[in-house]
Amino acid sequence: MTDLSAFAITQRWPAADPAKLQLYYFPTPNGVKVSIALEEIGLPYEAHSVHIGKDETWTDEFLSLNPNGKIPAILDPDGPGGKPLALFESGAILVYLAEKTGKLLPADPARRFEAIQWVFFQMGGIGPMFGQLGFFYKFAGKEIEDKRPLERYTKEATRLLGVLEKRLEGRQFIMDDDYTIADIAIFPWVRTARVFYEADELLGFKNFPNVLAWLERCMERPASQVGLNVPPRG
User: Fold this and answer.
1) Number of folded domains in the chain?
2) What is the DSSP string of 1-65?
3) How far apart are alpha carbons 132 and 234 in whole angstroms?
4) Boundaries of each GST C-terminal domain copy (predicted)?
5) Which domain range does residue 62 map to?
6) Under DSSP, is residue 188 helix (H, G, I), strand (E, B) or coil?
7) What is the pLDDT of residues 180-212, one digit of tens each?
């Protein structure tokens, strides 16, 4: 039987089945990337809700797995060489899962890196910029009288949507007909901007028909429907 007792995080979030991949998660855009990917891949896993609103990511147990105190993180009992692997950062986890299973990344080396560059596009651009937009448009930042921060992030988020719009011209997904971790990395953030931040009009989504059609295709996938709600927010 697999023994994960050496990992302190299992003391607070014990594994019902230590042979399964353990996902430490909250249904944010970054969190659902991993649950959606796992559902697409079909890899057995257990999802543990780590409530960011209750500061559970700053407990000693969680920090033992991710010293940066952010979800998601995973503990794979069957890592490289058959040894357990602890991993954080959603982009790194997506690449790891794709390479582990041979799914959600093109087999051709050049196309593989082309897909990965779009994952980094999300990690370095869409994620940080959309996140700041949400703070200054919907959350505490909206109370700041100086609207220059909101204007800055609105302008940049709109520009990034334009980049995505151009990429999707004549394509079903980021990598043509291949659904990959690039789509999984990006679409939860676009969904959040529209649905959770309620920034549809602010960002002029009607001006990005390719993005809207692509978002609908991504969300209609059965794995997306499950992964967006595992586990529930609670």
Assistant:
1) 2
2) ----TTSTHHHHS--SSTTSEEEEE-SSHHHHHHHHHHHHHT--EEEEE--GGGTGGGSHHHHTT
3) 24
4) 108-234
5) 9-103
6) helix
7) 999 999 999 999 999 999 999 999 999 999 999
* Best CA proximity match to 34, nearest among 22, 19, 20, 18: 22
Tell me how crowded residue 98 is: count the other CB atoms within 10 A of its CB: 23
79 in any annotated domain = yes
- Domain-ending residue, one of 103, 123, 156: 103
Averaged pLDDT, 35-63 = 96
115 and 142 share a domain?
yes
**Tokens in use for 19?**
């042979």
pLDDT value at position 1?
58
Same domain, 64 and 78: yes
- Contact (CB, 8 A) for 46 and 15: yes
The rounded Cα 34 to chain-centroid distance in angstroms is 6
Q: What is the mean pLDDT of the chain?
A: 96
Q: 44 with 119, same domain?
A: no
Q: Hey, what amino acid is at 39?
A: E
Distance CA 214, CA 107 (A): 23
Decide which of 56, 74, 103 is a domain's last residue. 103
Would you say residue 234 lies in a domain? no
User: Exposed, middle or buried by CB within 10 Å (0-12, 13-18, 19+), for 130?
Assistant: buried
CB 48 within 8 A of CB 17: no
Burial class of residue 216 (count of CB atoms within 10 Å of its CB; 0-12, 13-18, 19+): exposed
15, 80, 85, 117, 234 from 121: Cα distances, Å: 34, 27, 26, 6, 31
